[in-house]
TrEMBL record:
Domain Protein kinase per the UniProt entry, residue ranges: 1-213
SMART domains: S_TKc
Protein name per the record: Protein kinase domain-containing protein
PROSITE patterns, per database record: PROTEIN_KINASE_DOM, PROTEIN_KINASE_ST
Gene Ontology molecular function, alphabetical: ATP binding; protein serine/threonine kinase activity
Keywords linked to the UniProt accession: ATP-binding, Nucleotide-binding
Lineage: Eukaryota, Viridiplantae, Streptophyta, Embryophyta, Tracheophyta
Signal sequence annotation: none
Top-level taxon: Eukaryota
Amino acid sequence: MLVYEFIPNSTLFHRIHNKKQGSCISLATRQRIAQDSAEALAYLHFSTSPSIFHGDVKSANILLDQNCTAKVSDFGASILAPTDEAQFVTLVQGTYGYLDPEYMQSCKLTDKSDVYSFGVVLLELLTSKPVIDFDAPEEERSLSSRFLCAMEVNKMQDLLDNEIKCEDDMEVIMKIAKLAKECLNMKGEQRPTMKEVAEELDRIKKLKQHPWGVEYNPEEIETLLDEVYHNIVGEHSGYFHIDMEAEESIAVGR
């Protein structure tokens, strides 16, 4: 007998596409779900021996516990990383709308196939739209195609879920969108690894939490310190010397 953990919040797919009235999902929660899922996939790719390729990454295979902590599930299409050509699968498995185009052409499941599928999950988190819309015109049925076209003409905001449209969050949203675009690159070798995706999501989260934690180049730092210097001098007598080369970044004298 297998005893599974109780998952009161069902799947990410259900949470996104079958939302009850008044039950919105904040951007912070969406970010946390994305990061949890990315770290789980990165663990499969880099911390297991041999590596494991999930093969069917999608919102329906991401479970959410009572705290909306994401848990990647369903390994029916998973494989151990092949060590030679003979070990590659010859039958494409997965879910339409999430499948890596390169995998469909070559029948070779790789770690970058999971990256592509995860990119589609990021789109669901940003837009709350179905991955395939069979009621739309043929050229607009695929969410990934619509997204890439929107990014090309700077109309990504038209696809965003209204629940997360906010001027204050737009920088964070666009960074996630840019990451999704990188994951959806048609060439697998040009996509980031799942470890890089997880690290970038962590950086984006810290950008929102600690905006001063962003890396600045020396010219930007000097400009910021000059502004501080002039503001202080304008209000107080005496002088302030800012020495960029000293061990202490700011030396104050009287």
